[in-house]
Amino acid sequence: MNKNTEKRVIISYNRRDRNSVRIAEDICAELTAAGITPLSLKYDDGSMGGLNGAQSTESGEGCLCMITVGGDGSIISHGKLAAVCEIPLLGVNTGRLGFMANLEPSEIKRIPGIILGEFRVSRRMMMSVEVSYANGGMLHQNTLNDVVVSRDSKSKLPEFCVYCGETEVSRLRADGVIFSTPTGSTAYSLSAGGPIIDPAMKCIEYTALCPHSLFSRPMLFSAERTVQLRVNSYQDSRVTISFDGDSGYPFGDGDVLTMRSGGPDLMLIETGEGFFGSVNRKLMQPLR
């Protein structure tokens, strides 16, 4: 087969979970039988020597799609690469909730037919985030889910100041604040009392964590807006930033966190009832 016409699919998986590795290998077999070449990322393979049945690669460029095997965390971590490569992503759930994954392990025989046929794509907004440190340092991240700024567990309550452009819109003492994309609205923000947002929308959601206030409510900003956060510490209160669950970045007085819509959208392959079907089945029903 000519390399230019070769059908290739990149598979990402949770290599720390034996079940995910096994399911990924089964998917490789299904793809190979359908005339599709499976690839696996080198940094996924780690010290395992590669995924059985897949060729190792450093990039997903030119692939039909990416398949993730794991939970929502796997989609969030690998979805950024899929977005950069401009290829759609199909999730196979081996985690607990698997809200963004559209297939269960029992359905992997459907995969060749899905990716070679017509499928729906849900475009998911990414958020471009910058931290300007008072000492002149800079940090940039693209997030698919959320940015969480919170105090350490033994720290005094700091004051969080939120701005839209140059206008202050909120100043409160709280355990922290969450800024989420519509995709992230069904995650930590939902648990903190935020609304579920249709992922087709383009906006940034702001939700406070345990605010010491009777008047704090979640707020939505247009994706065209620039949202900023500053913090005023109290008795050396300590604050850290988490980007899509990757935590441990310091944040303090004089630092500025800036968020806006940015980066390529993630194209998430939908099967069945899609987003609102998942809302009904996985969030509105009692957990089993």
Q: Sheet with the most strands?
A: 6 strands, antiparallel
CATH architecture of the largest domain: 3-Layer(aba) Sandwich
- From the alpha carbons, calculate the radius of gyration and give it in angstroms: 20 Å
CATH superfamily of the largest domain: Probable inorganic polyphosphate/atp-NAD kinase, domain 1
CATH domain topology of the largest domain: Rossmann fold
Total helical elements? 6
Low-confidence stretches: none
Shape: elongated
What is the CATH top level name of the largest domain?
A: Alpha Beta
Count of DSSP E strands? Answer: 19
State the order of secondary-structure elements, H for helix, E for strand. EHEHEEHEHEEEEEEEHEEEEEEEH
Task: Report the mean per-residue pLDDT as an integer.
Answer: 90
Distance between the termini: 47 Å
Task: Tell me briefly what this model is.
This protein is an alpha+beta fold and 288 residues long. Helices cover 19% and strands 36% of the residues. The relative contact order is 0.16.
Task: Report what the structure shows.
The chain is α+β, with helices and mostly antiparallel strands. It has two domains: 8-124 and 265-283, Probable inorganic polyphosphate/atp-NAD kinase, domain 1 (Rossmann fold); 127-261, Sandwich (Tumour Suppressor Smad4). 19% of the residues lie in helices and 36% in strands. It is built from six helices and 19 strands. It has helices spanning 18-33, 42-45, 72-85, 111-116, 188-191, 274-283; strands spanning 8-13, 37-41, 55-57, 65-70, 89-93, 120-124, 127-132, 138-143, 146-151, 159-164, 167-173, 176-180, 203-209, 219-222, 227-232, 239-243, 246-251, 256-261, 266-270. The strands form four sheets. It has a six-stranded antiparallel beta sheet, with no helix packed on it. It has a six-stranded antiparallel beta sheet with strand order 14-13-12-9-16-17, with no helix packed on it. Strands 3-2-1-4-5 form a five-stranded parallel beta sheet, with helices on both faces. The longest helix has 16 residues, at 18-33. The protein starts with 7 loop residues before the first strand and ends in a 5-residue tail after the last helix.
